From TrEMBL:
<dbReference type="Pfam" id="PF25598">
    <property type="entry name" value="ARM_PUB"/>
</dbReference>
<keyword id="KW-0833">Ubl conjugation pathway</keyword>
<dbReference type="GO" id="GO:0061630">
    <property type="term" value="F:ubiquitin protein ligase activity"/>
</dbReference>
<comment type="function">
    <text>Functions as an E3 ubiquitin ligase.</text>
</comment>
<dbReference type="InterPro" id="IPR058678">
    <property type="entry name" value="ARM_PUB"/>
</dbReference>
<dbReference type="InterPro" id="IPR013083">
    <property type="entry name" value="Znf_RING/FYVE/PHD"/>
</dbReference>
<dbReference type="Pfam" id="PF04564">
    <property type="entry name" value="U-box"/>
</dbReference>
<dbReference type="InterPro" id="IPR045185">
    <property type="entry name" value="PUB22/23/24-like"/>
</dbReference>
<dbReference type="GO" id="GO:0016567">
    <property type="term" value="P:protein ubiquitination"/>
</dbReference>
<keyword id="KW-0808">Transferase</keyword>
<protein>
    <recommendedName>
        <fullName>U-box domain-containing protein</fullName>
        <ecNumber>2.3.2.27</ecNumber>
    </recommendedName>
</protein>
<comment type="pathway">
    <text>Protein modification; protein ubiquitination.</text>
</comment>
<dbReference type="InterPro" id="IPR011989">
    <property type="entry name" value="ARM-like"/>
</dbReference>
<dbReference type="InterPro" id="IPR016024">
    <property type="entry name" value="ARM-type_fold"/>
</dbReference>
<dbReference type="InterPro" id="IPR003613">
    <property type="entry name" value="Ubox_domain"/>
</dbReference>
<feature type="domain" description="U-box">
    <location>
        <begin position="9"/>
        <end position="83"/>
    </location>
</feature>
<dbReference type="InterPro" id="IPR045210">
    <property type="entry name" value="RING-Ubox_PUB"/>
</dbReference>
Amino acid sequence: MNKVQIEITIPHLFRCPISLDLLEDPVTLSTGQTYDRSNIVKWLDAGNLTCPVTMQKLHDSSIVPNHTLRHLIDQWLQLCHQFDTGNSETIDYLASIKHTLQSHGSTLENKVHALDKIRVLSYEYCSFKKSCFIKLSFLPLLLELVFGTEYAQVSKKHMELKELALFCVMKLLPLVSLEPLNMIKDESKFAIFMQLFEKGTISMKIILCNLIESTASSSKTEEVCYMLGNSHKLVHNIVLFCHQNCELSKAAIKAISALCSLQSNKESLVRAGAIDGIITYISGCETKQKNLAPLAMTIIEKLLVLESAKETLVNNPNGVETLVKMVFMVCNQECSEGAVEVLLIICGEFRSAREEAIGAGVLTQLLFLLQSQCGTKTKTKARMLLKLLRSKWSEESKQV
């Protein structure tokens, strides 16, 4: 029987940033960057006092063995060896993993171990492995492990199984049809979805937000996107995530943006506090270099088709002031343009918004923006806002 060799490439995560070779003895610096021990020792012995990747000065030059990464690399190498034997063996191997996950006789520990194998394999999908996962219909099985009533318990082992299964789901989603996600519409499965949102780990909550984002990317999952967007409890939880750590808040903003893609979801989002949550997120972006403030501003623009959204924004104690602070963002022109666009809308309709914006220094911000190197479109909108504020101010002064 002819055997087809499977091309295996080293995942980026498993390469030393210095040599670009497979990590043999991974160690981590105080900056959080991982290198092969021999390479980083040479770097430090040469008198370098910085981290090669970040170039941060090392106040602590100690190195710590990364046992978790070492374990993942060992597993990956073993699996690569098994996959390198040929097509039929590959299918048989994956089929045996699937059987373990499906079998009622398999223990939770065996199922967790099987999922761990899929997780390791997912770090580098070759084309044949992709076709095997699709052919063997892994996605519906993984979703059942996460949302099935058989695994509704919240014990530590059950949650470990669900977290691993969710990780594998997200790795498979770009490769397959999203139609199996419609199972979330089932009442019992949605109840577990909510349970994980409330009691799951931060990693699980991030993945669930990513899952919501995926439902908006296909017409086949539009109904489930609508259902999720109209669950007040769910959207309220997502809004609360906007107040959390950086990665979770980013995932929440992306999830809200996805739900916002359906017009029928917008009213529900506003009622659940999306405007206030987004303003809280944006106000925390001033000191962060990497954020989703432009996307958050786009969400506000989309929601402002609703009068209720405009009123919520104007009535938010920090709403107008936060937008004014975003007008002149030297490192983020998209954010500046979005802030000016939103201010154009609310200042055109609400006198209180105009007064608050002027009191918060919007005129100075706009003048700085016009003198900057921002794009023509942004400058045009800035001039429109200045003209609006001046004309309205003139009209209102005459009335007094």
